[in-house]
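Input for the complex:
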Amino acid sequence: MLEIRELCCERGERLLFDQFNLVCGPGDIIEIRGANGSGKSTLLRILAGLAQDYSGTVSWRESAKQASSEVSPIEFRRLSLYLGHASAVNASLTPLENLMWLTELTTPVDESRAIAALQQMQLGECEDVFCHHLSAGQQRRVALARLLTVDARLWILDEPFTALDSAGVDLLHQLIQHQVRDGGVVVLTTHLPLTGLAGVKVVQL
Amino acid sequence: MLEIRELCCERGERLLFDQFNLVCGPGDIIEIRGANGSGKSTLLRILAGLAQDYSGTVSWRESAKQASSEVSPIEFRRLSLYLGHASAVNASLTPLENLMWLTELTTPVDESRAIAALQQMQLGECEDVFCHHLSAGQQRRVALARLLTVDARLWILDEPFTALDSAGVDLLHQLIQHQVRDGGVVVLTTHLPLTGLAGVKVVQL
Amino acid sequence: MAGKTIIKAVLRREFLLSVRNASASLNGVWFFVLVCGLFAIGIGPDKEQLGGLAPGLIWVTALLAVMLSVDALFRHDYADGSLEQLLLAAHSLYFLVLARLMAQALLIAVPLALVSPLLALMLGMKAAGLPVLILSLLLGVPTLVMIGAIGAALTVGFERGGLLLALLVLPLYVPVLIFAAAAVVSAADGYTYAGQLMILAAQFVLAVALSPLAVVAGLRLNYYH
Amino acid sequence: MAGKTIIKAVLRREFLLSVRNASASLNGVWFFVLVCGLFAIGIGPDKEQLGGLAPGLIWVTALLAVMLSVDALFRHDYADGSLEQLLLAAHSLYFLVLARLMAQALLIAVPLALVSPLLALMLGMKAAGLPVLILSLLLGVPTLVMIGAIGAALTVGFERGGLLLALLVLPLYVPVLIFAAAAVVSAADGYTYAGQLMILAAQFVLAVALSPLAVVAGLRLNYYH
Amino acid sequence: MRLSRVYVSIITIRHRGLGKATYNLLMWSWFHKFGSPRWFYDFSTRVLPWLAVLCAAFLLVGVVWALAIAPSDYKQGNSFRIFYIHVPTAVISLVGYYVMAIAGAVSLIWRMKLADIVMKEAAPIGALLTFVALFSGAVWGKPTWGTWWVWDARVTSMLILFFLYVGVIALHKAFDNPEQSGKACAVLSLVGTVNIPIIYKSVDWWYSLHQPATIKFTEESTIHPDMFWPFLVITTGFYLLYAVALIANTRLGILQREYRTQWVRSRLQE
Amino acid sequence: MHPQRKQRLQIIVFVLIAVAIAAGLLLYALRENINLFYPPADIAAGKVAVGQQIRAGGMVREGSVERSEQNLQVRFVVTDYAADLVVNYDGILPDMFAENAGVVVAGKLTENGEFEASEVLAKHDENYMPPEVAEALEQSGGSSEAEY
Ligand code: HEM
Ligand SMILES: Nc1ncnc2c1ncn2[C@@H]1O[C@H](COP(=O)(O)OP(=O)(O)OP(=O)(O)O)[C@@H](O)[C@H]1O
Ligand SMILES: Nc1ncnc2c1ncn2[C@@H]1O[C@H](COP(=O)(O)OP(=O)(O)OP(=O)(O)O)[C@@H](O)[C@H]1O
Ligand SMILES: [Mg+2]
Ligand SMILES: [Mg+2]
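Predicted:
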């Protein structure tokens, strides 16, 4: 269960959000919505534990009732998956090498599962092309393949649909649906209408 | 008038397109459509004069009839504007500095016009924030502001809607519409449905 | 244990990348050889004079080669977002960074040490100093990598970080330079050098334990907001 | 004329960026001083010996400082897409590149030349060589910038290009190094040095005229597909 | 196992199970109060004038005594008087590095804003003092050593110290976010503190021309009392000058960092 | 134990072990003589090889300085009051060079046990006193090594 209390963050003399509260539990899809520059990415980075200059608390509890079940930062990193504007795909590695590394940062994985994930992302043909030869959408798919290999409870996705073609968008919709059906939580931003997803809770920033 | 004849391009042993022909004249909006990795960006880079390993011809004529009116490469660069996946926005310059430079590469411009363009792109407040502080959408807006300051006949836009919020998308629609009403040509790619634009010719790749 | 998987993954990627990228470690060696050659040209080929200078020249060159290699250590990962993912790994960053630094230290030190006897002989150093030269490089270069990594972490966000890195890091390199050059000179002249090597080793051990702390802090602060 | 606007725009951006980025040109100077200090430490403090070596040491250091500055010349513009826009500018690239290179040459050469007398005296060089040292730097460093830019253009697409650049460029630096060091040594010893300076000047003029051609070709290569 | 847990709870300053008083002491709440920029600003407004007057008095007496009254040296004559600038600046520039590093450590560990500002303001002052020490040493070297620059241990380590300062300044200038640059400079100056003793020892061992210590704490000094007293006065003056400069610059730094807050506005209006 | 604390403990233990090892190595190293600066006594005791670049230092013995008439050749004796070292030098001496004053010479030992200096530096001693005091001391037969 993710709990955000009285989050407040300012950047360059502009208050991005103030007294921001949010509680979400298993099965929630939260869409953070806002205009360009309203602070969505900043919020997601704070959730993921990357940004530090904010006030307020962000916590993840195993159970909603016990206050003591709050997990430690390292445990939280194992439970969460952050995918930002930069896709963390190294240009001189192949998709498989990138995927293996990115996955193993939080979850041990064997190669066959990674290969299957790439195939599901329609990257079967490009398995051993260096990533700087890939198109923008294909690079994004490499980054997204991690959703299939990592066992995270909380997904934090910053504009994950960028550069994807319509087949890719559909696929990602399915993945998200699957994740929440399994009791996971998805927090995402996007400027697209999320018509393909059921039960999205929109939070305006 | 843009004329593409028998364009053929292969990458890493894959034929991206073969015998590709396209002719377009004043007032045309051409959308190149295709799945991820189908070669849209490659095609646009060839049009812009960036990529070189292809066969076939790309030419721009002042008038459709006279074969001799084909313009020289430098003249073509003055007449065209290419905006790719990378937005060419330097992180340690301000939006205004970036815009001035990018514009002056092809068109002399005075500062007031550049400032007005930034204002129209809703970047008035961030005029002198360094660009690495800007959000993804704001950086894209800096790049797009160039559409307002450059006097080009041919726009080549590779997924220009990326990272823009819905207001930004509407604005860009207007700009495109305005450009073709003035007799310009727009060639673009996107994975979004272009419902806001009238008279788009779709070319499947 | 999960920690081991992560460390192994980090190491595997490190080696893969260093193999892929125009054999970066080999380039360090070429740099080493070339700059020593430049000295021979710039100073004039008076062999006797050069021989006396050789330990100092070789060591200063090695130091520059290390600085150049280290500059790229985090820069690319920062640009493409891999660094943020590393910071979000489910393991103590101290050990992850330590693993990377050790891998880099190995990749940089060994080729330099291997090629150094050749250079020393070219510059006319006395043969008696050769084994100690190799040893001093194997002990000293890793220390330089560790210290340099601190500077690299602090400057990773800057466009033209290379020279700033030099300013931050080169003063800190002085102790290594002094003891390493002194060890080689002593050995070449037939004197005892164990003391200097011990001090180099002590510096190495200290650097191994402490520099990851500073590197982690340095990397984190680039993601301060 | 449109050409002038473009060239002015390119120059303005160049100066803006060099002011913004951690005062990169000043860092070059610090690097210069630091590395000379390291040599003194590595070689030993014997002033008479150092004095004789000073021209060579100073020039090799200057050469490295230039190489480090030049490495960043196009790298960032490549990464963020500015370079493709430069290649699409409505003006002959030759002159645009030439303008950038000249600006860089100025930004790098002048500070180095200004600080060099201090270093020369610290290293114990004879005062008679000082004016020629300054002159040789003012003539030679721009040549090095031009040559280095060719390497920078060719290696702009590589992750760890810095050392590869060294490999490509340092051999090409040898002629400049030889004549510049010789001029300074001659002057310090009271001999004639006009000949060497003339040759440096000739190299400079050649580099100015030819290197933009190579740089443009090199930059284009990166966008081959 | 229990022992390790106790140990960890001590080093991580976990307060569960500890008494409230101990917790308060460990969390240094008093320390934070005194560390607030506002408290410091008001406190220094009261103290600074007195300090400045005291400093001026010491320096004035010291300079007159050192330049006009104190005897010249039997060997060096009047060039010996450089001693009175050289030694205080040299010593304080070293002390200044530790001031900077300790402030850096405090700001890093306890996230204290005041310490952060002090650290950043200490760097240029220290660099300036180091430069003066180098310069005065060089000027002194010409008559005494016959050359104004030698690569001697102390001289070389002083040069390195200068670069350490310049590094901190350059790093500070390179960031545009003050909190980022604060952390970066703190890390760098802490790394420097580990290294300064090492650098000093290594360089010291390397080569020595510079004279050994004249002013000694454990044995009697090898300087004549007539020369020593003005030295004491002028050194005290320099220490005060350092303090005054640091406090004044810190006040400016505070204003720059906090100019949007209510209390700064009200102070500026007064 | 909590995994986070466990890792923190691991780090601390690791750092402590490293510091201990470093301290041990340093202690061992400090027992060796690693200085290349030799007083005349050490040279007399044969600790320096012929032809090795070293530095030596001490006081210039009173009345030992012989200057050549034709050129810049100088010959003087450096002493640490335990042993003497004959130094030959060809070059301009620093202004502060004087009998009974500290000096540092860099160069090498020759076959005949004399020192061939390539550089002579006047080393200023750490005593500061007014001229009158120095004179008085001189007359009372003390050296400038006097203590206060
Ligand atoms: C550029 C040249 C010089 C530099 C960088 C330099 C540096 C220093 C430093 C860092 C100290 C303080 C050391 C400590 O407290 O441990 C110092 C002290 C001192 N220096 Fe220099 N020095 C230079 C030249 C000279 C010269 C030429 C003389 C005179 C012969 C001289 C005489 C002294 C004296 C008397 C002290 C006080 C020593 C004591 O009592 O501890 N210095 N110098
Ligand atoms: N130092 C600074 N000075 C001024 N403004 C800053 C500074 N740092 C950050 N900002 C502002 O903070 C905001 C950060 O926005 P963020 O990236 O979170 O936006 P976003 O909602 O993700 O936008 P987008 O939809 O474009 O991705 C931007 O408006 C940016 O201009
Ligand atoms: N050296 C190479 N080896 C193999 N394939 C290559 C090589 N270079 C390019 N390609 C392929 O060429 C294609 C280039 O695609 P391009 O970037 O033009 O796609 P796109 O249509 O713009 O896709 P997107 O919608 O994702 O932006 C990709 O499929 C890529 O895998
Ligand atoms: Mg965003
Ligand atoms: Mg594309």
